[in-house]
């Protein structure tokens, strides 16, 4: 069993110049999970579109964030909107990391990850729930998605829903394009959107 003496010993070693931070983080995450005080676990996943922050609750994957969104800001938002009991706990997200790796390798076309939708609500949530209906390697216009969501006039609202998608890549807002075929904007940047669409088109 880990004791306060063990922690003091590790901290003393750190003071002596030995880097035990990773070990301490792991021990803290395991203890917090065991004691039921870890509400949000997160890790960073390397990808062709840059480092992605992924975070999960006991209800499922709650957030995927690009570096351009500022991971520190995203973590603070999670603390404010979900729970301040948030900790880096990579093993809790092994399945998420594996499925993302498979997707970027071109061998996964759909995600089997359980999702926690609490960060989206109302019409935005309705839009996001319909996005997986756009098949891998295909695109749909903002107008078509508005039709799918049951409000054909809400084209601008569809754009807002995509721009505020808390689960990009997994919930494929990158497959939504303009009616003239132009890509349109993307919360991860136009280059990331182009890479995702090219990846799917080539598979």
TrEMBL record:
UniProt-listed Pfam families: DNA_binding_1, Methyltransf_1N
Keyword Transferase: yes
InterPro entries in the cross-refs: MethylDNA_cys_MeTrfase_AS (IPR001497), MethylDNA_cys_MeTrfase_DNA-bd (IPR014048), MethylDNA_cys_MeTrfase_DNAb (IPR036217), MethylG_MeTrfase_N (IPR008332), MGMT (IPR023546), MGMT_N_sf (IPR036631), WH-like_DNA-bd_sf (IPR036388)
Active site feature: 173
Domain Methylguanine DNA methyltransferase ribonuclease-like: 41-116
Biological process per Gene Ontology, one example term: methylation
EC code(s) of this entry: 2.1.1.63
All copies of domain Methylated-DNA-[protein]-cysteine S-methyltransferase DNA binding, residue ranges: 123-201
Catalytic activity line of the entry: a 6-O-methyl-2'-deoxyguanosine in DNA + L-cysteinyl-[protein] = S-methyl-L-cysteinyl-[protein] + a 2'-deoxyguanosine in DNA; a 4-O-methyl-thymidine in DNA + L-cysteinyl-[protein] = a thymidine in DNA + S-methyl-L-cysteinyl-[protein]
Keyword set, alphabetical order: Cytoplasm, DNA damage, DNA repair, Methyltransferase, Transferase
EC category name: transferase
Domain of life: Bacteria
Entry GO terms, CC: cytoplasm
GO molecular function annotations of the record: methylated-DNA-[protein]-cysteine S-methyltransferase activity
Function: Involved in the cellular defense against the biological effects of O6-methylguanine (O6-MeG) and O4-methylthymine (O4-MeT) in DNA. Repairs the methylated nucleobase in DNA by stoichiometrically transferring the methyl group to a cysteine residue in the enzyme. This is a suicide reaction: the enzyme is irreversibly inactivated.
Alphabetized HAMAP family for the sequence: OGT
NCBIfam families noted in UniProt: ogt (TIGR00589)
Other noteworthy facts: This enzyme catalyzes only one turnover and therefore is not strictly catalytic. According to one definition, an enzyme is a biocatalyst that acts repeatedly and over many reaction cycles.
Stated name of the protein: Methylated-DNA--protein-cysteine methyltransferase
Organism encoding this protein: Mycolicibacterium peregrinum
């Amino acid at each position: 069993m880990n004791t306060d003496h063990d922690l003091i010993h590790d901290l003393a070693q750190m003071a002596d110049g030995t880097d035990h931070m990773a070990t301490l983080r792991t021990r803290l995450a395991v203890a917090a999970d065991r004691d039921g005080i870890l509400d949000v676990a997160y890790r960073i996943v390397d990808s062709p579109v840059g480092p992605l922050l992924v975070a999960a609750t006991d209800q499922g994957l709650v957030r995927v964030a690009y570096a351009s969104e500022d991971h520190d800001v995203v973590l603070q938002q999670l603390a404010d909107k979900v729970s301040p009991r948030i900790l880096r706990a990579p093993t809790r997200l092994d399945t998420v990391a594996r499925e993302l790796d498979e997707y970027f390798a071109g061998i996964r076309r759909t995600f089997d990850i359980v999702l926690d939708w609490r960060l989206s609500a109302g019409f935005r949530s309705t839009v996001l729930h319909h996005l997986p209906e756009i098949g891998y390697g295909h695109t749909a216009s903002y107008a078509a998605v508005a039709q799918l969501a049951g409000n054909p006039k809400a084209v601008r609202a569809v754009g807002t829903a995509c721009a505020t998608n808390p689960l990009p890549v997994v919930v494929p807002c990158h497959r939504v394009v303009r009616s003239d075929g132009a890509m349109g904007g993307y919360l991860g940047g136009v280059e990331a959107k182009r890479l995702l669409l090219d990846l799917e088109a080539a598979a």
